Amino acid sequence: MGAITLSMWLTLLIGGFGLSALLVLAALRYSRARGLVDSPGARRSHASDTPRAGGIGIVIAYLCVLTMLAWLGLVPALIAWGLTVALILVAGIGYLDDHQPQKVGRRLLVHAFAAVVLTASLLGASQEGWSWLTALIGVATLMVAINFSNFMDGSNGMLCIQTMAIAALLMLLAIMAGNVALALLAALLVATTSGFLPFNFPQAQIFLGDVGSGALGMLLAALGLHAFVAGSVNGWLLLALCSALWLDAGLTLLLRMLTDRRWTTPHRSHLYQWLLRRGWSHAQVAFLYLAWTLLFVLPIILLSTAGWLPELAALAIVLGGGVAAWLAGRLTLRRQARRHPSQLSMHANRPPRSLT
C-alpha cells in the first residue's frame, strides 16, 4: 500500500467514526425537534415512535472525509467528483422523502441520474476501457442497489452491520489487489457507518431513514462497480459478497410478482421481517445475516481466490441461500408450534390474508 501508513489508516477510521457519530447525534436532536418520527404500524417492526433520517450523519461525514482524500491525491478526482454528486442526489431525495413523501417517479428519476453520473465517473477514471454494455450494467446495478437497500432497512442494525462487513471484505480484497483508492473508500464506509451503529443497535434511538438506506446501497454498489471496472475483484465474487442483501430482497420481490401481489407497495414479506414476527430479536436477525456473510460467503470467496471458479462460487451462494431460507422457515415454524400449538393450528385453518 506504499505511501499509506498505519497512522493514516487509524486517522481515517477513528476520524470517520467520530465525525459520523457527532453528526448522527445532531440529526437525532433535529429529528426530535422537527417531529420526524416513524410510528408503529402493521408494516413496521418497532413498538414505539422513533426518530428517522439519522443516516444524514453518515452521508455528511463520508463526503467530508472523501473531500480530504481527494485533496491529498489518495482518491482520483474524477471518482471523488462522481461519488460526491451521486451521493448528494440520492441522499438529498431521500432526505426530502423523510420530511415529506416524494412521488415514486421523481425518486427513480433522481436515482437514475445519479447512477449515470457515478457510472460515467468510474468508467472515465478506468484504465481498462469500457463498453456500453458495462455502462448499462453499472447504471442498472446502482439503481437496484439503492432500492434493495431501502427494502432491507427494517431491522435494527442489520443493514449497517451488513454494510460494514461487506465494505471490510472489499477493503481486504482491494489491499490484496493493490487498489489503494478502493481500499480507502471501503475503509471510510466502514468507519462512517460504525459511527451510526451505537444509535441504532441493539435498541434504536434513531433510524437511517431513506437518506441513509439509499446512500448505503449506492456506496456499496459504487465500491463494487469500481472494483469490477478496475479489475480488482471478479464480478461473480462481488455478487456473492452482497448475497445476504440481494437474495432476501430479490427472492421476496420475485415471489410477490409470481403470486400476483402488489410488489410496489410496502409489505412485510422479507425473511428478516418474517423472523421478527416469529419472535426473533433484532440482534438475532442481524447476527444471522452476518453469520451468512462471514461463515458461508467468505470461505467460498477465499476458495475462489485460491483457484475455485468464481461462477461456481456464485452458484453455491444462490443454492445455499435457498436452502438456508428454507431451513430458517422450518425451524421457526417448529419453534412456534412448540410455544403456541393451539394458535398455530388456528392460523393454519384460517384463509390466507393478503400482505399488501
Structure write-up:
This protein is mostly helical and 356 residues long. 73% of the residues lie in helices and 1% in strands. The chain contains 14 helices and 2 strands. It has helices spanning 6-34, 56-71, 77-99, 104-125, 132-151, 158-177, 180-196, 209-230, 235-241, 243-258, 271-277, 282-305, 310-339, 341-348, and strands at residues 37-38, 50-51. It has a two-stranded antiparallel sheet. Helix 3 packs antiparallel against helix 8 (209-230), helix 9 (235-241) runs parallel beside helix 13 and helix 13 (310-339) packs across helix 14 (341-348).
Rg over CA atoms, rounded to whole Å, is 20 Å
- What is the rounded distance between the termini? 51 Å
Which oligomeric form is depicted? single chain
- Count of helix runs: 14
* DSSP, total strands: 2
> What does the main sheet amount to?
2 strands, antiparallel
Strand content: under 5%
Q: Helices and strands: which structural class? A: mainly alpha
Mean pLDDT: 83
Which regions contain 5 or more consecutive residues with pLDDT less than 50?
343-356
Shape: globular
Element-by-element helix/strand order = HEEHHHHHHHHHHHHH
- Placed side by side, the strands forming the largest sheet appear as 1-2
Helix content: over 70%
